Structure formats: structure tokens, C-alpha cells
Prior knowledge:
This protein is mainly alpha-helical. It is built from 15 helices and two strands.
Amino acid sequence: MTAIQVTHEQAPQRLRVLRRSDPLLFISALGLVACSLVTLRTATAGSGSYYVERQGIYAAAGLLVALLLSRIDYTRLRQFKYVFYGLMIVTNLIVLGMPAVQGGHRWIPLPGFQVQPSEFGKILLILSLSAFAVDRSQRVHERSTTARIMLLGLIPALLVIVQPDIGTSIVYAAVAFVTLFILGTSWKHLLALVLLALAAIAIVLVGAPALGVHVLSPYQVQRLTGFLHPSQNPQSATWNIHQSLIAVGSGGKLGRGSIGATQTRLGYLPAPSTDFVFSALGETYGFVGGAVVLSLYALLIWRGLRVVALSKNLYGSLIAGTIVAMFMVQVFVNVGMTIGIMPITGIPLPLVSYGGSSVIVTLIAVGLLESIHIQARIAADSKSRSLVS
């Protein structure tokens, strides 16, 4: 067979894959990346184009990986569940031995890039935990199943807390909980887990300190509880929230523009390129800018939920459902902390906050959603052909 014949045969196959994909998934992701680049241009104006260029490189790399993943049958990944889970545990242990950066052990330095294992651990946990859940799907109503899956999610979450990274540990716990929910776990078991979580929070924040045992450091407690009283002591404990509220409020309907965004441009707003990038967006582009970004997230989540419903098997539904849950938790917590309704936990805003690991991991998740969508369409087409014949 000649090279020309191979090319002619491959072309229709590529077109079929393209038709079976969900273009709105990639459009929403690309739109968020574009919003990120525009916002970072203002938020990091003092650093020239460094952050914008690197964010663009991270996004390009993530899109390439996402496109490759979309062409792979995701069901093949199930057999690597032990590899994925072990890799997640090992990398989150290795990072604890790395030199501290900004008071935390979160990054593994590589030439030209710093890897954040806790971010990549999100996808590794989703892939492995979904596979473990499928293996236990026939025993879903047993308490041992609930305990095992939740424990598999909490072990890496505890490793991430030590780094310290409370925000990502919340995502890990949410992934485990949503896995149980999609699997069909008893409502009694789910309610018991919620009550246990509330009891643990009460013990850590109230009970243990009353007995002289401090599980969290004082600054962590302030960040977790400061949103309850944002106007109290704005010069120290609630400084971040106070400045964020000023930035978002001053944006008005259309924003103050890159020159008029003084909270961001003059350095009053903390971490305007990462944790509080939505505040910078709100001050610069106002309500309209924030509405555009939230609309893109709504589109991304809607298409993700559609993939959950279309998936050809339970493994795909679990992966898609937990990916959507990961997006929802990160968006809700990050945007919520910028407007003072959620504690400051350091969760990045997907595809908008600056950061190579976060951007690449989010785009990998989008690629997995596309793979599940494409495989569902292939299965549906095969079923239709078999019925016709």
C-alpha cells in the first residue's frame, strides 16, 4: 500500500473522530485560556510579558496532550490503576523532601519548569479511584466499599495537607465523595460521611485548640475563618479578603481598565495572577468580564455533565463526573473566596490562574472528557449499524 493510499484512508477516519468530538468542550477551554492571558497582561504588567508568554506555553502543551488523549480509548487506562495511585503517593511523598518555597513543600524543580505533584495527583486520583470503584460496583451497598474508597481518597489528601495545601486536599476529598455518589452508595453512608467531615472540622478548629492542641498553624486558622468577619482587623488577618472585595467592588459594570485598576496595578491586591486572579479580572473588566468567565465555566460544566450521561460504561461516567466535580469545587471556592463567602484555601481558578501544573492538568481533564464523548459516539454508531444490519 502506498503512502498516498494510507493518507486517503486516514483522512476519513480523522473526519469521523472530529465529528464525534464535542467542539464546545474545547471552545470553552480555549475561551478561558484567552481570558487568562488577557487578565494576566494587566495583573503582571510590572513583569513585562513573562507570565503571559509562559502561560501561553503551558496552555499549548496542555492542549497538545488533551488532543492526544482524546484519540485514546480511555478504558485502556483502567488497567493502570495501581500505577496511577502509586505514582500519586510517591510524588506527593517526594515533594516533602524538596526545599521549601514560600513556606511550603509543593514543587519539584525541573529544568525550566516546576512540577506540582498535588495538581497532577488530581487526575491520577480520578483515574485510579474510578477504576477501584468499578471493581467494587457489585458490592456498592457494603460499608467496606464506602470505607475503602473514602480511605483511598483521604490518604493522598492527608499527604497534601502536610505540604501544606488545604485547598487541593479539599478537592481530593470531594473527588472521593463524588465517586461514591455516582457509584450509587447508600444515602445513609453519604450522610454519615458528611457528618464525620463536619465533626472533624469542628474538632480541628474548635475542640482541639480548646484543649491546647493546635492541628493547624495560626495563619491557616485565620485564612479559614477570616471570611466570616471580613471587616474585623483588616490590617492583618482579613487583609487579603478586604483588598479583594475593594477590587471586585470598584470594577463596577465595565471595569476600570488596565490603567485604572489601581488595586491590581499598585500591588494592593495579593496574588493577582494566582489565588485572586478573579479579583483582578473583576476590577479590570468589571461585571461583564466576570460574567463572561463564569459563562464559559457554565458551558464547560454543562458539556461535562452531558458526557457523564452519554458515557458507554460506568468507568467513563465516574471519570467524567469526578472531573466535573473537580471543576465545580475549584471554581466555587476560588470565586467565593474573592467575594468573601468562602475561606481562603489557595485553590487555583482552572485555566485562568497562572501556573503550569494547574493549566496542564485541567486541559488533560478536558482531553479525557473528549475521549469519553468520542468513545460513546463510536459505541452508539456501532450499535446503530448492528441494528440496521
